[in-house]
Amino acid sequence: MEKKKITFILNPISGTHSKDEIPGLIESTLDKERFESEIIFTEYAGHAAEIAHDCAEAGADIVVAVGGDGTVNEVARSLVHTQTALGIIPCGSGNGLARHLCIPLDVKGALRIINKAMIEDFDYGIINDMPFFCTCGVGFDAFISLKFAEAGKRGPITYVENVLKEGLNYKPETYEVEDETGATKYKAFLIACANASQYGNNAYIAPGATMKDGEMDVIVMEPFDVLDAPQIAADLFMKTLGNNSKIKTFRTKHLHIHRKEEGAIHYDGDPIMTGTDIDVHIEHNGIRIVTNPEAIEDEAQPNFLLNAFSDLFNNINNVREDIEKRGKRIQRVNKVLLRKLTKL
């Protein structure tokens, strides 16, 4: 049997985990009777995309992204509409695509999935010419992605800090949204387009999303007040967001969004500034991915963000009557939670 050619692209600085042990784990775990392998380390921003493109041109069977969501996006966008499949060893803080595909979050577990080499075709999306594989969007999530990128550190603590610091001051915008059925105006906190079910960290923005139906799930989060926020956060992690009265959802293949002013958008959590018009569409079966043939979600996995938001919810309940009288009290609650988070 001819061996499959597989390249591991390892970003040494992405995500939140040390990767010093990964080459050794690849050496000891990869099925050498099945694969002819190489490991290439990235050296600069965009290098992963260049390596992946060259591998696809050379006819590699599988290219594995070893890193966070940004590295996965870089590698994946160079493999679309080729015969080269994407593999994932998740090492990031969110790991949205890996979680959706039920790829183990430990290196050995991910390598065992790669050894099985089960490859399927999946959809991906494009927002203003930028490919995305999990989610993209405008509004608050793009704004927070921009703040997260500027924070200088990674991980869920940074994310929660930015949500708490910026969330109550963020002003919803008015968007004109057009799909195959016509145009509708929304005043919205955010508009998310989901190819996969979650942002990462088990935050399910579109619990029913599938990467095989040729459509995206569009989620419009309408303006809400401080007392609605804990329930929305809880719904996000309990896969019940679609039941919330502040959420409007629909599915479509193409979407055009118009806003009054230019601003940030994000694709798989990476923010860029763009203009007033935003186009999003799905490329059906446009990428091949190594997937888990025995996909079972790990329900027992602890969820830091859910615990943090539950803590916030409990604090808000304790002072609900005072919050209704004096909005400034929520700022005190946030400061208490932030102090707790920074001590973890």
Structural class label: alpha+beta
Largest sheet: spatial strand order: 6-5-16-13-8-9
Proportion of strand residues = 25-35%
Largest β sheet strand count, sense and barrel closure: 6 strands, antiparallel
Number of separate helices: 11
- Could you tell me the number of beta strands? 16
Q: What overall geometry do the principal axes of the alpha carbons give?
A: elongated
Distance between the termini: 51 Å
- Uncertain parts: 297-327
- The H-and-E topology, N to C, reads as EHEHEHEHHEEEHHEEEEHEEEEEHHH
Bin the helical content: 25-40%
Detail the topology: elements first, then pairings.
Blueprint: E1 4-10, H1 22-29, E2 35-41, H2 47-57, E3 62-67, H3 69-77, E4 85-90, H4 96-100, H5 107-116, E5 119-127, E6 130-132, E7 135-139, H6 140-150, H7 156-167, E8 173-179, E9 182-188, E10 190-194, E11 216-221, H8 229-238, E12 247-252, E13 254-259, E14 263-267, E15 270-274, E16 277-290, H9 304-318, H10 320-325, H11 329-343
